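Two proteins follow. First one:
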Amino acid sequence: MYKVRKPKLSEVVQLKALIDHAVARGLVLPRTLEELYENVRDFYVYADEKGLAGCVSLHIDMEDLAEVRTLIVRDDLQRKGVGRILLQAVLSEARELGIPKVYVLTRCPEFFEKQGFVKTTLEQLPYKIRKDCARCPKYGVTCDEIPMTLQLNSYGNKKE
């Protein structure tokens, strides 16, 4: 039986190991242990009898914008709906907070398109560029992440 929940501080090292495995495969950018402790409240984890099997975070940028970050599912649970369940957890939180728009930078755009996200450009996310992208060694040269957005409404349904 699975459970999606907020992580415990005692699980941050295990969370980092999950993220590091995805980093080694080129799926996400690295996160330091200190960064994970500082932002642990942004995360949701998927736990099963083997431990942490997935994670995602919702990072609030501004009153009307938040980023979906670090969506990872353990290899043995790929394509079994775990990513969708984790994504729904952060989208529900965004709706509860009244955030009308979320975005993601991803190397897996097909997954997010199935969830209603649409491709955009980094220029449509100037706050992200100023805050994070400008610090990234891949910015402007080798960035291979696709920016995507999803409009939310307060009733929990996607806007068309």
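Second one, unrelated to the first:
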Amino acid sequence: MNTTKHFSSCVAEYDPNALPVSAAQEIVRQWALPRGRVEVERVRLFDALDRVLVKDVVSPINVPSHDNSAMDGYAFDGAALLDASGGDESLRLTVAGTALAGQPFEGRPLATQCVRIMTGALIPPGCDTVVPQELVQRAGDAVTFAASGIERGANRRLAGEDLAQGQPALREGRIVRASDLGLLASLGIGEVAVQRRLRVAFFSTGDELRSVGEPLAPGCIYDSNRYTLFAMLRRMNVEPVDLGIVRDDRASLERALRQATQDADVVISSGGVSVGDADFTRDLMNALGDVAFWKIAMRPGRPLAFGRLWSGRRPGEGESALFFGLPGNPVAVMATFYFIVREALLAMSGATPHSLPLISATSSQPINKRAGRTEFQRGIARRDDSGHWHVATTGPQGSGVLSSMSEANCFIVLKHDAGNIDAGDSVDILPFDCLI
């Protein structure tokens, strides 16, 4: 059986105790494959938002279905432009009638005639050009305009110009967006085939954790990680399976992991993977599955376990699920989710992952940074009058300062080999609006 650990050791810069973020992403990318057996659901358009298409959607019609006008004006045979002394003289045409959207002009105008036409109306037979209404002078039933101000074929939308019949409108693996719903509706398509939502089980570990609504005993804290994980999973439109809080003992953790592996495609825990936690955690992971790495060179988020779990008596038996053991600190949970887990969930959902878009910005302040790890600091970015971005940190960057995520509008992405940043240096930022 090929193991994640065996594959990981073949990845450049592999160090299970200080794995660069790029190497960790590559390992996860190789193991986070689309599910082998695709479960297809047909859903109506109102239920298709953020779902993953299981096959190409082919246009059954031309869009637009007929040549039509791109604006309000007058439609005519563009050959008349050639008769106006090379286009230097004014052209006078008689108005033969009107074409409205949904109410085409009946008949065929003569070469000396034109048709008053509205945006979206069918181009009348024999016409191929539209002169905008603001370029003409109308007197009674005649219009006059400069022939040099218009080219033959202008302002005409051709049938199939947007989409030709038989052409793929949306590709397999696409996450359906709001604009896609409109596109599908314009094709007369009322439902689409999508993949079953990925099932993701998640839980928090720790004897000190209490759920919202419970009284806090001395030394206890409310569990915030399940709520941020639920929100991030919900925005990705996967099916979240909340397993609650798991206590710090081997039997409880084993039950939670086995149940999660049976119920879900992916298992995410928070807490219980850092140095100093009970020894049974690592032993249990090795007993139930195959862990590729335990630590990455990332701040926040250094303690992060990744591997595969099985529900059987030994690795390789029973149901399997990918496992992400995230840190316990709230900011570290969010950072590791977006930069390590997110792409894996997209790939396993059958979607086509794309790199998150980074924007170059100027740091407004010095930023302390140690070379040899990738840092994701919380920042507040603004754009000046010339369109250039500037960014400053939110202040203290401790991985337990969850308020820094609420105050920030971006991550400041400081690369693995970078050292301290001076004010005025260029840095990369990832706006939170880019995240799912």
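SUMMARY FIELD: The longest strand covers residues 289-299. Residues 359-434 form a domain with the Beta-clip fold (CATH 2.40.340.10).
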